[in-house]
Design a protein that fits this description.
By secondary structure, this protein is an alpha+beta fold. The chain has two domains: 34-176 and 211-243, endopeptidase fold (from Nostoc punctiforme) (Alpha-Beta Complex); 254-390, no CATH class. The protein is 50% helix and 14% strand. It has 13 helices and ten strands. It has helices spanning 2-32, 82-88, 100-109, 123-136, 153-165, 180-185, 192-201, 219-228, 258-278, 284-307, 328-331, 338-360, 367-390, and strands at 34-41, 54-61, 66-74, 92-99, 114-119, 143-145, 169-170, 230-231, 234-235, 237-243. The strands form two sheets. The protein has a seven-stranded antiparallel beta sheet.
Length: 392
């Protein structure tokens, strides 16, 4: 009887011990059978919003046959006031959860390279990250206010990893010594007109030197930073897989490239200025077009500066794209007007100042845009000379 009792106690202790170990066993299996990785997708040259590349988080659970892609770069054209919010810098992006094989096929069909960095996370960090992502995709949490430098698909991942790992996570990149404008321009070789538009609309804030940490708003810089990142004495990335499908072909803008179109404005300005100095003609229709274009751009700059949340304040382009230029066509017929002469003198001084600043630091302004600005300077100066010749 005593042996039966002892045997029963031993059996009970074994079963209790197994129950005690069970959670730790499951925890260990879960840790070894699941992976998180950051996926970097190369630029896609057929769409401007894809020209900078893309980033997402992949989660694999081999035991449960789960393989999903968390995508923080999703936007909805059908959201209320989409275009108004885009112009005002109040566009809502959202995170989506997709089957990874579907996402991989989608980007592969666009011939974009796919680079995957498997993260060296412990079990607690994996649990935290999984719960965080799953909480983020809920309807009430999935939207966020997009900003193309400070809050996009890449910075979201950087911030999530910092939150997951905590102070142990270190980014070890050396200083870049590049401005935000230079970083952006590196991706716009195939979008010359868009590059000019961005350089016009964004203010001097993007001329500040970007830190290595802030440069991670670009997916490729996030990739390189993660390669160098450490958790204590260990590397953040345990393995990197690269699928080279990318096609980095540079496309030609053809006859309508900015340099050709803007050079045409300059050539006409030179020709008309020569004739105006030699003779008695004033070319009011061409000047009306030139100043109307610059004035329209000035109104856009002023709107972005005052009424939007874009990085558009302190925009030096306002010196040549003065909003009041839009009214020049309405009083330019009175070419002998003292007011018009004074206005042309002011325009000449402002555009000269822009050209002078460009000579000192060419990175402040778009090189192609200087062709157009020189045209305005030339026509403004010629009109001033013409006025003094025929009114003195």
């Amino acid at each position: 009887m005593q042996e039966i009792f002892i045997s029963s106690v031993i059996k009970f202790l074994k079963i209790s011990f197994l129950f005690f170990l069970y959670p730790f066993t499951v925890f260990s299996i879960e840790g070894k059978n699941e992976l998180f990785s950051v996926v970097t997708i190369g630029p896609y040259q057929n769409e401007l919003y894809s020209a900078f590349g893309h980033s997402g988080i992949r989660y694999q659970n081999f035991e449960k046959n789960i393989d999903v892609f968390y995508n923080y770069g999703v936007f909805d054209f059908n959201q209320p006031n989409f275009y108004t919010n885009y112009v005002k810098g109040e566009l809502l992006y959202m995170v989506g959860k997709y089957d990874y094989s579907f996402s991989e096929r989608y980007y592969s069909n666009q011939e974009r390279y796919i680079k995957e960095q498997i993260l060296n996370l412990n079990s607690d960090e994996k649990i935290f990250l999984y719960n965080y992502l799953e909480n983020n995709i809920k309807e009430e949490n999935k939207f966020y206010l997009y900003n193309y430098i400070y809050n996009n698909c890449s910075t979201k991942i950087r911030d999530i990893l910092k939150l997951t790992v905590g102070e142990k996570l270190n980014f070890n990149d050396p200083p870049l010594n590049l401005s935000y404008r230079s970083l952006i321009d590196n991706y716009l070789h195939n979008y010359k007109w868009a590059g000019i538009g961005i350089d016009i609309c964004l203010g001097s804030g993007i001329d500040y030197i970007s830190s290595s940490y802030n440069s991670m708003f670009l997916p490729e810089y996030l990739f390189s930073s993660l390669e160098n990142a450490t958790i204590g004495n260990n590397k953040l990335v345990s393995e990197t897989k690269i699928n080279k499908l990318g096609n980095n072909q540079i496309f030609s803008n053809g006859f309508f490239s900015p340099n050709i179109v803007l050079s045409l404005f300059l050539f006409i300005s030179l020709y008309f200025s020569y004739l105006q100095i030699k003779g008695y003609f004033s070319y009011i229709y061409f000047d009306s077009l030139l100043f109307f274009i610059s004035g329209s751009i000035g109104i856009l700059i002023l709107f972005l500066w005052i009424f939007t949340d874009h990085i558009s304040a302190n925009n030096l382009n306002i010196l040549w794209a003065f909003p009041f230029n839009i009214f020049v066509p309405f009083f330019i017929k009175r070419s002998s007007s003292r007011f018009l002469n004074n206005y042309m003198m002011l325009s000449g001084i402002m555009t000269f100042l822009i050209l002078f600043l460009w000579v000192i630091n060419s990175k402040l302004f778009n090189d192609s845009l200087m062709i157009f600005i020189f045209s305005i300077f030339l026509r403004s100066s010629t009109n001033v000379i013409h006025y003094f010749r025929h009114n003195n």
